């Protein structure tokens, strides 16, 4: 047993049940308990037997804040095209109205949902994405929180309905909790890669060239075009093994996974969309790329080239403009550095402008996500035109790739990343995605090479190989 503090949870739990009986509606019971420090991946793996298909993982860029959600106490989904952000927000706030909380609710503990939105609700669904809605969040039955100070907390969420028997449910949840926090060494059998296929790379380059022509004519300023690689395995690839690799290899990235039924969306992205902690807002402009050098000098040279490259600065600048403008509407103050700096990850370096703001009263993280997605880092400029071009020219469904993935709590705080360097595990396959910001002086072959670098983290993590 890892529970440090004996809680008085059961009395409060009975109250929640009474409330559900009396009000004849569902009541959320949410209890937070401090526990002994626990490795988030171990907790994730422990949830495999009991809750396969209902797990989610989040670790922030600093690597010191992690959330692991196990089990669906409740799901919040929307398939609306125009109103999905509000639909999710409304479901979530209405659901919280009757909640009963126990324990000290620190930021990142207690009732919070993990999930995200699809890139484009108007894109036609491809087979591999059918489990996912345009908005999908789960309130975990059990959630591990590791905070910046090295503390671990366990949140237990139970939805009480008027017909349930409280004692039975309580006992069942206690024994599941014990199972999850008890360390067991699970031997994971890994599967083998049988084939790695690039999907129509030549067609992609040709499309890119024709889009560059349209950009040259001034139809629009920037469009992000993405493509897909399919990796086949001789069995079902477990997200646990992929997360493990990503966590070891991609130190400066948000590591995430989101299981929906037998699919799992997973990745390691360096790009924050937005973080809200009370009134403080952080966002990231990330666009413009170059590879890493083999030596320190060479790496610095490449960095210098990127910082002075007109095409990449243009790609980047469009993102800064849009994010600053949109944040100004929701913030009392916005601070934008005048020049980008470099962000380096294992395989690539980017132009990076971190943006800070002070949120207006009453704004929630979800409002920020709605306003910012899609930024020109993943969509283009102007947004609507670029989205049309992506829909017509990409000939695939991005699903949750390049879309907002993260978490939000009951107070409207939370954090979302832009889910790039990511892929979908489905059946015996992994579908990996990578894209590039195309501007009028883009070159098809160069952009293709850029995608090859961007595929590397996920290819390495799933064990795929390219000729
Ligand atoms: C689209 C991706 O990345 C985006 C595109 C970039 C670029 O074209 O320079 C850089 C960072 C990201 O905003 C991706 O990794 O798939
Ligand atoms: Mg680029």
TrEMBL record:
Q: What is its EC number?
A: 5.4.4.2
Q: Where is the Chorismate-utilising enzyme C-terminal domain?
A: 203-454
- Reaction catalysed by this enzyme: chorismate = isochorismate
The record, for Pfam families, names: Chorismate_bind (PF00425)
> Any idea which GO molecular function terms this record carries?
isochorismate synthase activity
Q: What class of enzyme is it?
A: isomerase
Q: Which UniProt keywords apply?
A: Isomerase
Q: Which family does it belong to?
A: Belongs to the isochorismate synthase family.
Q: Which NCBIfam families match?
A: isochor_syn (TIGR00543)
The identity of this protein, by name, is isochorismate synthase
